[in-house]
Amino acid sequence: MISIKKAQTNLEYFFLTLLLLAFLLPFVYNALQAAHKSHQILSADNVLNDVESATGSVYELGPGNQKTVYVKVPNGITGSVVKGNILSIDVASKQPVALVKQTTPKIVGTLPYEKGSYHIKVKSIKNDLVRIGEGLELFAITPNCASTTGMPQTIELLGDEFKTTSTLLKDGIPYATNQYTIIDLATLQFTALQSELPPKTNFEPYLLSVQNGAEVTETKKLYVYPTQNLCGTLNPTLLIESRDNSHTSIEDLTDQLSEDDGHYYTLPTNELLHLELTNTQKQGDYTLIAIRCHATGTLNLLREGTTTIVGTASCTANTWETIKLYITTPGPASKTWDIQITTKADIDYLSGWTI
Q: What is the pLDDT of residues 128-137, one digit of tens each?
């Protein structure tokens, strides 16, 4: 009898232990998840701190100086931005976390966001410009619009690791070698001639790139028109891209709207800016905007062709800042949206992100 009661008591303790474990497991799991997220954010922040510190160091030393930074990128990073004076990393979570650092010099280049260990080269390429990354690269064309009535015209390419033997390519074909000069590792200048650059049908842009042996940069667009007053009239909706979390590499910094080469789009007060994205967006997705409002104001994201506001964000006066304009209300996914700003604003680039 005593053995039966003892067995029954042990069984009761066993089931009580199971119940207690079942009760505690969610708390333990949540605590572990929170600890992991905190470590993830701290690791990502360390990456930004190390790279930001290196940009300041080489900037103070001047052009030609460089430094290599060793970083460990954690998992769960969905994207990064290197633009203007903004260095940022996005950390995935139920509510995405954006870690942002502001650099003293302007910066160009890329910051890896795939999990792994990296040696990142940080180099001063101009008095006020620092590059993050290495290898042959073309960042910008200034100006990126020319007219036949203004030719011959000097066009400057900003890049890195140009050589005296580098070749300028126009739509993949070498440009007249006697019409361009390598000024330094970061600068190539060429003369735009009517014979080399007549306006194309429908004014399609020329695609310029730089070649070192088998290595060729990505292309940048040069628009050519019959008259100068047609320059700058391009619809910025054609220059907006979107990306998703598949880590597919696409160009989200547009050619026309780039503070680094002196070009940005000025939007009058309350005028609608129409967005056409390559991917559909829905509630929870956002558009990344580099913007300088002329006064404190509000950005409203509207469903195309309506006054229905699906997301808002605020901007400060006379300061370049990177803003995430989230879609906060439910509704059908769409590739097309309108943005309305309650003050005059300069827009540097736009990039749509889907979560």
A: 889 998 889 8
- Residues 286 and 335 sit within 8 Å (Cβ to Cβ): no
Cα of 131 vs its chain's centroid, Å: 14
Q: What is the CATH number of the domain that holds 308?
A: 2.60.120.260
pLDDT at site 23:
66
Scored b (16 or more CB within 10 A) or e, 37-65 reads beebbebbeebbeebbebbebbbeeebee
Query: Residue 163's domain spans which residues?
Result: 137-230
What DSSP letter does each residue of 32-61 carry, written as one string?
Answer: HHHHHHHHHHHHHHHHHHHHHHHHHHHHHH
Enter the tokens of residue 107: 């910066």
Determine the number of helices (DSSP H) and then strands (DSSP E) in the chain: 1, 24
Rounded CA separation 183/148 (Å): 25
Rounded to whole angstroms, the Cα distance separating 287 from 334 reads 13
Query: Do 290 and 86 meet the contact criterion of CB atoms below 8 Å apart?
Result: yes
Q: Which helix (H) or strand (E) holds 181?
A: strand 180-184
Q: 261 and 328 share a domain?
A: yes
End-of-domain residue from the set 72, 103, 132: 132
Same domain as 144, residue 253: no
Report the SS3 class of residue 336. Answer: strand
Q: List residues bridging with 137 in a β-sheet.
A: 160
> pTM above 0.70?
no
Residue with tokens 């580098």: 166
CATH number at residue 183: 2.60.40.10
- DSSP, res 295: S
Q: Which residue has the tokens 């056409």?
A: 276
Distances (CA, A) of 200 to 111, 190, 224, 258, 323: 36, 19, 7, 24, 36
Residues 43 and 159 in one domain: no
Give the phi and the psi of residue 53 in degrees, each rounded to 5: -65, -40
Do 254 and 298 share a structural domain?
yes
d(CA 188, CA 349): 24
Same domain, 241 and 333: yes
Question: For residue 250, is it left (φ>0), alpha (ψ between -120 and 50) or beta?
Answer: beta
Q: Domain count for the chain, please give it.
A: 3
**Reported confidence tier of residue 281, pLDDT bands at 50, 70, 90:** confident
What SS3 state is found at 333?
A: coil
